[in-house]
Specification:
With 140 residues, the chain is α+β, with helices and mostly antiparallel strands. Helices cover 30% and strands 16% of the residues. The strands form 3 sheets. It has a two-stranded antiparallel ribbon with strand order 1-2. A two-stranded antiparallel ribbon has the order 3-4. The chain has a two-stranded antiparallel sheet with strand order 5-6. The structure holds zinc ion. Zinc ion (ZN) binds at residues 22, 24-25, 27, 58-59, 61-62.
């Protein structure tokens, strides 16, 4: 998690673009117990700037799981794939949300992001399932 100051106006722009939902797991901040983080999509450690095009709204679990990661290692393929970029990529092109709350990958980017961000933790999937059934999950 970055300690860089993010101006209030920029934070508002990101939150608005994200429709106040985590841009990785789709859970709205209104149902979260902890405040959401502004994530550097390309981490500062990797030279990512603090600008709109490199920032995303992330829940605590996604942000802490992602850390400074920008890629995932696919073991059988022996290759690195970049992670999902909420500013450039469309969620539904990389992921499919099942009614039981589990997220299926549609692409290697989706697969790697699910792994690194631990998106299919059983508890997280269960929360998404309940939110989905109540129509409270973020747009995809
Ligand atoms: Zn999340």
């Amino acid at each position: 998690m970055s300690k860089t100051y993010i101006p209030v106006i920029l934070r508002r722009q990101i939150t608005e673009a994200a429709k106040d939902c985590c841009e990785y797991c789709l859970v709205p901040s209104s149902v979260a117990l902890a405040s959401y983080h502004i994530d550097h999509i390309i981490s500062e450690k990797q030279g990512g700037a603090t600008v709109f095009s490199n920032l995303a709204l992330a829940c605590r679990l996604c942000n802490l799981s992602k850390g400074s990661s920008i890629a995932a290692y696919r073991i059988p393929e022996d290759e690195l794939v970049r992670l999902f970029n909420p500013r450039r990529d469309k969620w539904s092109e990389h992921f499919l949300l099942r009614p039981d709350g589990f997220i299926l990958p549609k692409t290697p980017v989706g697969e790697g992001t699910i792994k690194v961000l631990n998106l299919n933790d059983i508890n997280r999937a269960e929360v998404r399932s309940v939110l989905l059934a109540r129509g409270l999950l973020g747009e995809r």
